[in-house]
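User: Please predict the structure of the protein below. I'd like the answer in structure-token form so I can feed it into my own downstream comparison script.

Assistant: Understood. Taking the following sequence of 180 residues as input:
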Amino acid sequence: MEKKQNRKIGFYIDTNAFVSYAKQKEPNHRLSKKFIDYIKKNMKNKKFNEHFNFLTSKFTEAEIASALKRQRYSHDKIRGFLHKISSPDWANAITPLPDPNLKIREFVPIVVEASIKYGATFADTVQACCIDLHRDNIDYVVTDDVGLTKVLKKKLKRIKIIGVSKALPQLQVLRSKKII
């Protein structure tokens, strides 16, 4: 998708990309790591930063903790990874949604409406809700979650859903078109 006027090209990164990054035995670990490390490294480049925006859900940390705990990761390893992704180099590269000014009492009714609209699991509903709230700023959703992909493809036609394996090549193609 081409950038419209001065709007950045938006990538929404689903939780499973971060879980794959954390878990070395995940099939997409290497690809997730390359993609996310590429973002972190290049966000320091002013031109790259002017053209691309990377987003995720604030609830991603809870989903990551839950996924890693189910994989029998220790509390220390889980907390270590969560500390890592909240560090400035991550926080400056990937923006958590929804907007920090949105109060919980305002967000809950939005999630309820998203539950009705999408009819997905709670985790997928929260992800879909964050994407839906910011759909005008998102061009790509990076996910390998089959359930979330089905939900989004039905309701958000303009946004392209790509797997983790296609995320870095797509970003590099877009970057080469922008000559940055």
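That's the full token string. The chain has one domain: 9-178.
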